[in-house]
Write a structure and sequence with these properties.
Blueprint: H1 2-15, E1 23-29, E2 41-44, E3 50-54, E4 60-64, E5 73-78, E6 89-99, E7 109-114, E8 118-126, E9 129-135, E10 141-146, E11 154-161, E12 166-171, E13 174-180, E14 193-199, E15 212-222
Length: about 220
């Protein structure tokens, strides 16, 4: 009798929903070639922005411009339909930033549109001083913390918690800040769900000379462990 009850209990427990498995929804890896060959869409303005694969250890995809005032190349990947606001997710990028202006905060950016908010994490480096920040609802740049962006590759990770509707931001494993939806702009349309990286500034100020970054890897996960 005891054995039968135990077997019934095990069978019942096996029917209970378990934790959702992590699902990789988007990946760019410079060792695998160009972003468009890995399923990314290229959005660009006619400009003197330069890009291309730099072979080496590690390999990286360079996005950098000259003195043009129009200076935009962005790679985007659609995210699953449904309410990302109700699911845990993470976005991360491994890169090195040589130069990027606070006057044009999306010159070097990693951003996620989840159908509600525009989580745009921006990298700024001017005259050796480097920070990581975000785009505010007013469209300006606000720094979260300092980061060693130029001398070596580093990994930025953003993890969304649906229980608190907040985004925890870390760099090389160290927490640099937490954002809520009040800290970032809303999406223009409820159907916008995508991850994007690169240079998303199409009209840099006249005194902004250039931006330059080297992207090694970009990844988006649903239900990260």
């Amino acid at each position: 009798m005891f054995r039968t009850a135990s077997l019934l209990t095990i069978a019942w427990l096996s029917l209970l929903p378990g934790p959702a498995r992590a699902s990789e929804e988007a990946l760019f890896d410079a060792t695998l070639g160009a972003p468009v060959e890995q399923g990314w869409r290229r959005a660009a303005e006619e400009s003197s922005t330069l890009e291309g694969l730099l072979e080496g250890d590690p390999a990286a995809w360079r996005i950098g411009g000259s003195t043009s005032s129009v200076n935009r190349i962005l790679y985007t990947h659609p995210l699953p339909e449904g309410s990302l606001a109700q699911e845990a997710w993470s976005a991360e990028a491994t890169l090195r930033v040589v130069e990027a202006s606070a006057e044009a905060p999306r010159d070097v950016v990693l951003e996620v549109l989840d159908g509600v908010s525009q989580w745009a994490l921006c990298f700024v480096r001017v005259r050796g001083e480097a920070t990581i920040g975000h785009l505010t609802p007013e469209g300006s740049y606000k720094a979260l913390g300092e980061a060693a962006l130029a001398d070596a590759f580093g990994t930025l990770q953003a993890r969304y918690d649906p229980a608190t509707s907040s985004l925890e931001v870390t760099f090389n494993g160290e927490r640099i800040g937490t954002l809520t939806r009040d800290d970032v702009p809303p999406t223009a349309h409820a159907h916008q769900r995508r991850i994007a990286w690169g240079d998303n500034n199409a009209a840099a100020p006249a005194d902004h000379a250039r931006s330059e970054a080297y992207w090694q890897k970009v990844r988006f996960l649903l239900n990260p462990q």
